[in-house]
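Lab notebook page, bench 4
Experiment: in silico fold of construct C2
Operator: M.H.
Input chain length: 413 residues
Purpose: comparison with the prior construct
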Amino acid sequence: MLAEIITIGDEILIGQIIDSNSAFIGKALNKIGVDVLQITSIRDDKQDILNALEEARKRVDIILLTGGLGPTKDDITKHTFCQYFNDDLVQNDVVLKHIEELFAKYISTPISDINRQQALVPGKSTALMNLYGTAPGMWMEQNDKVFISMPGVPYEMKGLMKNEVLPRLQKRFDRPYIIHKTVLTYGMGESAIAAKIEDWEDNLPSFIKLAYLPNLGRVRLRLSARGKDKKLLEDTIETRVEELQRIIGEIIVGYEEDETIEVRIGQLLIKKGKTLSVAESCTGGKIAQSFTRNAGASAYFKGGAVTYATQSKIDVLGIDASVVDKHTVTSAEVAEAMALTVREKFKSDYAIATTGNAGPQKGDGDVEVGTVFIAIATPDTVFSKKYVFSNLREKTIGKAVVKASEMLLDELM
């Protein structure tokens, strides 16, 4: 079962926005046994949409479009649908009632005729109810091909996929099972891991594929199994993962489908009845974000301070200026002082602190670009490590966030 995703919008092609919709749709389809053959991005142009529809129907069974639905003149997808399927727009009373209810409940401006026109859909289509917006999705079938159109607004698209599209696809098509298990590792590079698990990998059954997904000091190992017998796939995957645990268990920190390293840290902190705070300089709040983006983080995460400038470390955290003067702002001593003071200010049990130079120029500390000191304060002590990550700013920041979590996890375990 093959699908193609078509994203519509000039803003994608000129780099004004990142196409996150395709990633979400592809992952959601894969979970129900539908393979994405191709992802296509096109302009807000009727002929381009027509051409994309015609080409896609030659390749795949399911065509999903996002974008081009809305009240403005550049939202042309449903009009193009009518042309492609030789159809006319008709008013859907259920959709119209939904639009009117949305305006009455959430929107202060009066509803206009332009808004009511959102209830016009191709007569041959099935309207898909958009619970989070006024533009409905559309489902059209022709010659055993399914065409699905959804708004480009991510939260509206995700709601339609979850509530309308995926249940309908599961009912409409007979699909194989696709089971994934992604093992999270840290502290060892891709080639070193590959050498350690070579024999294990060579003996995987033909219906299981292994992919290496390296990124900023972490390597994810994704096992994918495909077939008709779901229990066989699940049991075989679990057996192979248990074997992998015996080979490289010391670098495995969790499983992506269940938990990230930050979720694992949160679980350990909650189990121990402990809390965490952070003081960040070069990482600019990204460590705090890596924890707070997870539901339930308030049970263990007390707060953080982004003390980016040298003076803010003194004024906000209360670090002794003499420590900065003696050791420079990018030093083990300052990192450890940051960790200790933020732990005290937030009354947490543990604290993470970062100070460094992500580049592109040397900062106040005059250290080489890519140098980062990461400190961990515990209930009993404080320690730090020096890293030299990269001369690329984004890579240095990303690696610092990863290493900070790894250092804390090691301490907790």
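Observations: Residues 283 and 400 are 7 Å apart (CA to CA). The longest helix spans residues 393-412.
Next step: discuss at group meeting.
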